[in-house]
Amino acid sequence: MGQAGERREPTMRDVAALAKVSIKTVSRVINDLPGAGAEVTDRVRAAARSLGYRPNLTASSLRRSDRRSATIGVLFEDLSNPFDAALLRAVEDHARRSGVLVLAGSTEDDHTLQRELLLSLSARRVDGVVVMAAGGHQDALQHERERGTPMVLVDRPPTFGGTDCVTTTNRDSSRAAVLELAALGHRDIAFLGDRSTLWTSQERYTGYLEGLAQAGLTLREELVRTGLHGVDVAETATAALLDLDRPPTALFTAQNLVTVGAMRILRTRDLHRRVAVIGFDDFPLADLLDPAVTVVRQDVPGIGRKAAELILARIDGDTSPPVHAVVPAALVPRGSGEIAPLS
Amino acid sequence: MGQAGERREPTMRDVAALAKVSIKTVSRVINDLPGAGAEVTDRVRAAARSLGYRPNLTASSLRRSDRRSATIGVLFEDLSNPFDAALLRAVEDHARRSGVLVLAGSTEDDHTLQRELLLSLSARRVDGVVVMAAGGHQDALQHERERGTPMVLVDRPPTFGGTDCVTTTNRDSSRAAVLELAALGHRDIAFLGDRSTLWTSQERYTGYLEGLAQAGLTLREELVRTGLHGVDVAETATAALLDLDRPPTALFTAQNLVTVGAMRILRTRDLHRRVAVIGFDDFPLADLLDPAVTVVRQDVPGIGRKAAELILARIDGDTSPPVHAVVPAALVPRGSGEIAPLS
DNA sequence: AACTCCTACGTCAACGTTGACGTAACCGGC
DNA sequence: GCCGGTTACGTCAACGTTGACGTAGGAGTT
Question: Which of A161, A194, A229, B203 gives A255 a disulfide partner, CB atoms 3.0 to 4.6 angstroms apart?
């Protein structure tokens, strides 16, 4: 209520007094429930307007039997990451259309923080949560789910049962990317991945292995670099790969920031037109780089929409069996992935 | 609470019954208030844990005299825009450290939507709001502010009084950018701006005019293109500029998406190494483009921190006069802005 | 005319929590 | 043994709203 005024918020009681009706009648009018005459309805509306009455959803949800707060929690790793931000936006859009608002938080892929945020959301009695699970164990998530909180995981599936999730074709699309590179003649294809505690990293790595196998290539362990959290670390790893006696002629970078780091180093070494790159996850301006970056693009709006649909349905009491929705990703050839090896 | 269990949430009453104390004692223990003995405290804690008790912040805030919901609203234009997303993240971080969560929404620069979202936030009794005002009139914002809701505007100042805001050095930095281009010998410097209803666009345009004047250049009206909302429109406008009989040798692009559109067209016309560009707002990968893009970079974390500090202080009852904080932006020379005109 | 039914209200208690206030037990000092 | 003070509880009402239920009056039916 703050510095200006310090007035008490008008309540239904105040409206009732002004309109000379009972508080219950005000409740009926405000909620468009039957049982209020036309003339009384007008009087109540006028009184509410003149007092600047605003319904109190917290009091209402406390008392109502359904207990809805019309609010969901969204916990992603980092809301400033373009992927997370786009996903949040998609979820928010669909939620808003159902009158549901979004409490958003960044978990930093940290269990403790994720747990604290879950508790904070729970204290505010959100109707459900959409979570990008922090890597490693999911104890706090599982506990929250088992309390009955509707939950949808995005990007990464649960390690426990009974919970919906929405992911993309991590493994299949990774395999396809590697086969694409192999088809151009690349035999030394490196894998640069995010922290290997992340399910997506593991899946993409598995896809990489499958791709190599299917192409009849043998894995060179020293071409695999994981645990690359952020652009800086990815740069270092890329530099190290290029310093090998037999450096890779193509890179499969399994996360957007890793792709950026790799491109940056290739650029500084003037190898960007000679070493092929396919990245997982599209990112803004990938098409404007030199060369434009070939990526596996997730359908972010599609994932967000699906996640929103699922959580809203569960909140509405949908008790059908849990769903693992897989939204297909697509290879977007732009140039960097179409560079053939120097023979 | 959803499909699994359908159990009733345990309340303080349940905990009290199990611990064989009064409900008020449970309240004291849960809130770490004095007046509970050591043995009783242990019993209550044990009971709460065994029942899986979770405090109900909505009930608590309804009853408490301070009425805090420990939640603020954040309404930005588009949460998937990198600038907005980074700002949200900065605000969220600082709020969380004070135990405050963030209800986030995108206004799409639409008054109606902004008004609806404000009402939704108000119904949930948020403690305050941080808003990127939609262009044009600010009636709904002003009304909300006058009700006493603590409010901080970011990126754009209020058209009404008594309200804090945080902006950047739009005009000064724009002038500096134009002077930079002029110093290189550019005499035909175009201005490409976002919708001119936006205060930031106007300020940046004013800075552009000041820069021209200070450099002794005359304004060529046909080199000014505004109302460019989004990358596509910016592309069209850039193409039109380049098709002039006497096209500009330098572009000042006054918003990040506009910069992207301009770079894209310069690239397709192979003019990217001949036409200079300075953009307002940094964006991811600006340093990786060819040429790397010289930009005016806002201190986004600084803006977010300041906004969070202000709103939290106001919520805490700070009644000092309203502040217009200006967080300085910096010119980041990377290459595109250092291209001299062909003589 | 007595009846049922419906509409348009009103009254009351309860949602989960906490502020205000009450009280019994105990402590120290004289 | 009495007083004033403190500690550790408990009781009660209230925050703003709504579900359950009550009731008065009118319309329709028999």
Answer: A194
> Is there contact between B13 and strand D, defined as CB under 7 Å from any strand atom?
no
Helix/strand number for chain A, H first, E second? 12, 12
What is residue A5's three-state secondary structure? coil
343 residues of chain B, pLDDT tens digit each: 343 345 789 999 999 999 999 999 999 999 999 989 899 999 999 999 999 999 999 999 999 989 899 999 999 999 999 999 999 999 999 999 999 999 999 999 999 999 999 999 999 999 999 999 998 899 999 999 999 999 999 999 999 999 999 999 999 999 999 999 999 999 999 999 999 989 999 999 999 999 999 999 999 999 999 999 989 999 999 999 999 999 999 999 999 999 999 999 999 999 999 999 999 999 888 988 888 999 999 999 999 999 999 999 999 999 999 999 999 999 999 999 999 998 6
Domain with CATH 1.10.260.40 in chain A: 12-55
CB contact under 8 A, B284 and A285: yes
Query: Could you tell me which of A263, A268, A264 has the C-alpha nearest to residue A295?
Result: A263
Of all residues in chain B, the one with the smallest CA distance to A125 is: B56
> For chain B, where do the domains classified as CATH 3.40.50.2300 start and end?
71-167+300-326, 170-299+331-338
The ipTM value here is 0.91
CATH 3.40.50.2300 domain position(s) in chain A: 71-167+300-327, 170-299+331-338
- Say which CATH topology domain B12-55 has: 434 Repressor (Amino-terminal Domain) (1.10.260)
SS3 of B92-138: the string is HHHHHHCCCEEEEEECCCCHHHHHHHHHHHHHCCCCEEEECCCCCCC
Residue whose entry in the numeric block shows the structure tokens 């090896």: A341
CATH superfamily of A71-167+300-327: Response regulator (3.40.50.2300)
Instruction: Kindly state the greatest CA–CA separation across chain B.
Output: 90
Phi, psi angle pair for A330, to nearest 5°: -130, 145
Fold topology of B71-167+300-326: Rossmann fold (3.40.50)
Nucleotides of C strand lying within 7 Å of any protein CB atom: 7-12, 14-20
Q: Pairing state of beta strands B324-327 and B330-332?
A: unpaired
Give the closest of A125, A315, A317 to B58, CB-based.
Answer: A125
Q: Residue B337 CA to nucleotide D9 C1', Å?
A: 73
Tell me the nt nearest to A37, Cα to C1'.
C8
Fold of B170-299+331-338: Rossmann fold (3.40.50)
User: Residue A272: CB partners within 8 Å, gap ≥ 6?
Assistant: A263, A266, A290, A291, A336
Q: Say whether A3 and B148 touch across the interface (CB within 8 A).
A: yes
Q: Which amino acid is at A204?
A: R
Q: Whose CA is closest to A179, among A171, A70, B330? A: A171
- Cβ of B106 within 8 Å of Cβ of A119? The answer is no
